């Protein structure tokens, strides 16, 4: 079967994920568009350097760039968020009507990828974060956490389950930053 014949072949989601996992990351990054391209259906992600040599980078995209105060180390922030595993497996966390969450960077225990991706974000902005598993949830004390007990249990059962973690531990987190207060 040639590639030309694949036009009418249907794949299950698992088969499509397997196929896309075989594509080298260098080819995936080469197809991304720059911020100067204005096509409405294409999104560019910025890449943050990995803190050590054994992890993949954190990526983020601003859907709306805020105009307020930027987040820095020691800031107290108030935000709404949603999250899921990158293959849509497991736990829905929060929803649009969810309570606002208040945390202080550097004081509260947060997943490393979230801390990296939130830095520099401005009050009023909306951002999607792509966080690799090795910079995600490592134990039950790391935040941000879902408000409801049931959602927290689903989160732990998914990301702290070693069989699922190896296959689908990467996170997609969407954040709407409502307030920033920098500690000085």
Automatic annotation (TrEMBL):
<feature type="domain" description="PPIase FKBP-type">
    <location>
        <begin position="74"/>
        <end position="181"/>
    </location>
</feature>
<keyword id="KW-0697">Rotamase</keyword>
<dbReference type="InterPro" id="IPR044197">
    <property type="entry name" value="FKBP17-1-like"/>
</dbReference>
<keyword id="KW-0413">Isomerase</keyword>
<dbReference type="Pfam" id="PF00254">
    <property type="entry name" value="FKBP_C"/>
</dbReference>
<dbReference type="InterPro" id="IPR046357">
    <property type="entry name" value="PPIase_dom_sf"/>
</dbReference>
<dbReference type="GO" id="GO:0003755">
    <property type="term" value="F:peptidyl-prolyl cis-trans isomerase activity"/>
</dbReference>
<protein>
    <recommendedName>
        <fullName>peptidylprolyl isomerase</fullName>
        <ecNumber>5.2.1.8</ecNumber>
    </recommendedName>
</protein>
<dbReference type="InterPro" id="IPR001179">
    <property type="entry name" value="PPIase_FKBP_dom"/>
</dbReference>
């Amino acid at each position: 079967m040639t590639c030309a014949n694949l036009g009418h072949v249907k794949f299950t989601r698992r088969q499509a994920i397997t196929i896309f996992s075989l594509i080298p990351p260098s080819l995936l990054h080469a197809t991304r568009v720059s911020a100067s391209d204005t096509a409405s259906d294409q999104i560019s992600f910025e890449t943050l350097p990995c803190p050590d040599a054994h992890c993949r980078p954190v990526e983020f995209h601003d859907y709306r760039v805020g105009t307020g105060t930027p987040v820095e180390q020691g800031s107290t922030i108030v935000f709404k968020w949603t999250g899921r595993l990158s293959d849509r497996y497991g736990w829905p966390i929060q929803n649009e009507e969810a309570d606002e969450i208040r945390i202080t960077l550097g004081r509260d225990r947060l997943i490393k990828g979230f801390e990296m991706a939130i830095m520099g974000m401005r009050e009023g902005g909306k951002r999607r974060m792509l966080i690799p598993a090795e910079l995600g949830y490592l134990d039950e004390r790391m935040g941000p956490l879902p408000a409801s007990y049931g959602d927290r249990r689903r989160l732990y059962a998914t990301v702290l389950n070693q069989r699922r973690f190896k296959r689908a531990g990467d996170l997609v987190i969407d954040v709407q930053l409502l307030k920033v207060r920098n500690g000085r």
